């Protein structure tokens, strides 16, 4: 005899009704796409410091020094 049962419902159902995005989510996404000038300056300074650190390590590890 075969056991005919309905399959169990998945644990994570994909039939979730979409909800409109929260205003804070919209503001956060907009801030990520267009960061403030101060944040851009900080990112550039960190990038310059990282490059300078890599160059300094390469110079110090070179055989001549």
UniProtKB/TrEMBL annotation:
For bias type Basic and acidic residues, the affected ranges are: 19-28
Q: Which UniProt keywords apply?
A: Membrane, Transmembrane, Transmembrane helix
Please tell me the species this chain comes from.
Chenggangzhangella methanolivorans
- Region Disordered: start and end of each range? 1-31
Superkingdom of this protein's organism = Bacteria
Per the UniProt record, which residue ranges are transmembrane? Answer: 41-60
Tell me the protein's name. Uncharacterized protein
